[in-house]
Amino acid sequence: MDLVPALQEPLKQPLKSVLGPATAKVMAEHLGLHTVGDLLHHYPRRYEERGQLTHLADLPMDEHVTVVAQVADARLHTFASARAPRGKGQRLEVTITDGSGRLQLVFFGHGVHKPHKELLPGTRAMFAGKVSVFNRRLQLAHPAYELLKGEGGEAVESWAGALIPMYPATAKLESWKIGKAVQTVLPSAQEALDPLPESLRAGRGLVALPEALLKIHRPHSKADIADAHARLKWDEAFVLQVALARRRHADTQLPAVARVPVPDGLLAAFDDRLPFTLTEGQRKVSREIFADLATEHPMHRLLQGEVGSGKTLVALRAMLAVVDAGGQAAMLAPTEVLAQQHHRSVTEMMGEFAEGGMLGGAEHGTKVVLLTGSMGAAARRKALLDLATGEAGVVIGTHALIEDKVQFHDLGLVVVDEQHRFGVEQRDALRGKGRQPPHLLVMTATPIPRTVAMTVFGDLETSVLDQLPAGRSPIASHVVPAADKPHFLARAWERVREEVAKGHQAYVVCPRIGDEEDDPKKAAAKKSAEDEAEKRPPLAVLDVADRLGKGPLHGLKVEVLHGRMQPDDKDAVMRRFAAGETDVLVATTVIEVGVNVPNATVMVIMDADRFGVSQLHQLRGRVGRGAAPGLCLLVSEMPEASAARQRLNAVASTLDGFELSRIDLEQRREGDVLGQAQSGARSSLRVLAVIDDEEIIAEAREEAAALVAADPDLEHLPGLRTALDALLDEEREQYLEKG
Predict the structure, then answer these.
(1) What is the pLDDT of residue 642?
(2) Collapsing DSSP states into helix, strand and coil, what is residue 372?
(3) Using CA atoms, how far apart are residues 178 and 55, in angstroms rounded to an integer?
(4) Would you give the DSSP letter of residue 502?
């Protein structure tokens, strides 16, 4: 393995640390920076120009910020308090300005002496602290600060020419201290091995890696920053795409059994009795899947589709094709509610074909088995036997399918529903149950922008279902501002009663369960000063159901559903709701995916601001599944101008999941989106923006595929191998190996 000694050097060592031990410790614990290379790749978030001040008017609440500003005024006050009863308490109030706004700094007690001497009117400095509100004014209490006077050794001239880099920082380590640490290790940048092939770098006019690191940390002009960004974005896109391309290449080397359906078998018989015609999108995606199944290396395909676009039907047809070809198919669902729902809908769709070997079953039929952790011992034994003998061609289950006891006769296809909810190990354990690697179809109802699909699921081929089947009704969505206009909420409950009077049903969704195991203190811990609404615990299913049953929905049949109920109870509740025996189902997000009750036409989401954009879109997709139009009401107490309300307005304004996923991605930091659970490699994106840099990602994918096809082991590219080693530590390597 090619290591770069200077860049691999730990920041903290027993005998000789690169940085002070306290600084190195904070960097490791709070920023995940352990080596010189890590620190060099901790890039500035933005730059301040010395002649230009930050916008104090735009400061975010409750966030740790660094601002460059000038002292306008400083006053020392004395006051009496419990600690200083004789009026000896001291408070220093300093007002700073940047032309766009003013901000108050406050220091207390012994902490006033140094700033009282140093922060004189006219002084310019960098200030870092957490923004809070006192007496309706923004303030920083006890901020750390660094004078920008150019006096002595602390002069800002010693680092950064005309531009001051602002680093992602923490309360324990301010941006300028990180800047000084970077300056200490910057000479090591000269030893960085370049991961990009020379031809690629030259062909695109990109600067060398050492030069890019120097320019991003110590730019003399905005052109330097642009050069560095252009280069470092390519590094991130290319190294990740090479990792994914190597994985795709390795997959093509694996053997698999080709599964080709027989012309007049189960699939053909099933298609003949479908009461509707497939959409053009469903036909196209099915063709792509069948072509993959017919090859002798494993299919790895991502099927993403809008809520209600008929993904389950497409997956079922693939499963039946495999059963036709003599194999078995397993569908892995993330929750028992969803596994039971899939089992119900699959057996309903298949009818007599799901009763293979039983009295009244069709001649081409097979057995469809459900396997979950909470099944009784006898039913479980029977299911396991049917899988081992091959009598059950189709099995639907939760992670119970993964247990060692579960043996398949000939597993040919694994369908994973809602991929993001499964750990890679779980998926891998199920794939390991085939004699040869089975084909893999991953489904998600969360629409993913093309670039995210290339970055997050870059090892999978992608199929998209964006056409809704005929007969689907439009869903009207409205924000209900419960705090500003309480009569709107009263009207929402009237609308629920009106829908029930027409013979329809309703969902009410809450963020919390509300039984004794919920800790209101924990729920209330995340307090934002944005609004009172954020200070109370989120609304809970049990409280809301009780209130509605006694109040606005009195006389209607109201039931609850949440994740801590016994599986049999959950299934019974869902069956009653599906059968129309329950008017209103008050639930947590257990109903988010896969639950299909066409008669449910209205959904009220309480505290809608507590849910993410994609989650709201998923939830909304539970209504409008029949002939009657759907209605989704997003209830929130957040004020009109808040970011949370803007997010809800965006959801209400469009039914296009791909558009919403873009909005979601733009509003959240990409590390959050790309770093979710599955792989640490995802959060390694520091300068690459998956929405804005679509072109770079697409080009990097092409370049990576060509390079890996020519040199799968990267024998001629030691720099690229080193970069891959840094990206794919052991855990991430396993992620890419297992898929």
Answers:
(1) 80
(2) coil
(3) 22
(4) T
Mean pLDDT of 583-598: 81
Contact 450, 312 (CB under 8 A): no
Chain Cα centroid distance, residue 373? 27
Q: What is the DSSP secondary structure assignment for residue 538, as one 8-state letter? A: P
Asked if 434 contacts 408 with a C-beta cutoff of 8 angstroms, the reply is yes
pLDDT digits (tens, 9 = 90+) for 226-285: 999 999 999 888 988 898 888 888 888 888 899 998 888 899 999 998 888 888 989 999
Residue 278 sits at φ, ψ, to 5 deg, of -70, 150
- Gyration radius of the chain over CA positions: 30
Contact 508, 606 (CB under 8 A): yes
Structure tokens that stand for 369 in this block: 């088995």
Which residue matches tokens 């018989």? 269
Mean pLDDT, rounded, for 552-565: 90
Query: Which of 73, 32, 65 lies closest to 48 in space, CA to CA?
Result: 65
Q: If 0-12 CB within 10 Å is exposed, 13-18 middle and 19+ buried, where does residue 564 land?
A: exposed
pLDDT per position as a tens digit, 512-537:
887 645 444 444 444 443 444 445 78
What b/e readout covers 650-672, taking b as 16+ CB neighbours within 10 angstroms? bbbeebebeebbbbbbeeeebee
Q: Who's near 37: CB < 8 A, 6+ residues apart?
A: 4, 7, 8, 192, 726
Helix (H) or strand (E) holding 735: helix 730-738
Distance between alpha carbon 568 and the CA centroid of its chain, in Å?
31
Residue 582 per-residue DSSP state: -
* The amino acid at 556: L
Encode burial over 193-231: b for 16+ CB neighbours within 10 A, e otherwise.
bbbbbeebbeeeebbebbbbbbbbbbbeeeebbebbbbb
Measured over the CA atoms of residue 306, residue 310, residue 315 and residue 321, the dihedral's sign is negative
Q: What is the predicted pLDDT for the residue at 419? A: 58
Residue 682: strand, helix, or coil: helix
Average pLDDT, the chain: 80
Q: What angle do CA 234, 237, 242 make, to 5 degrees?
A: 115
Distance in angstroms (rounded) separating the CA atoms of residues 200 and 341: 51
pLDDT at position 85 is 59
The kind and range of the H/E element at 137 are strand 137-141
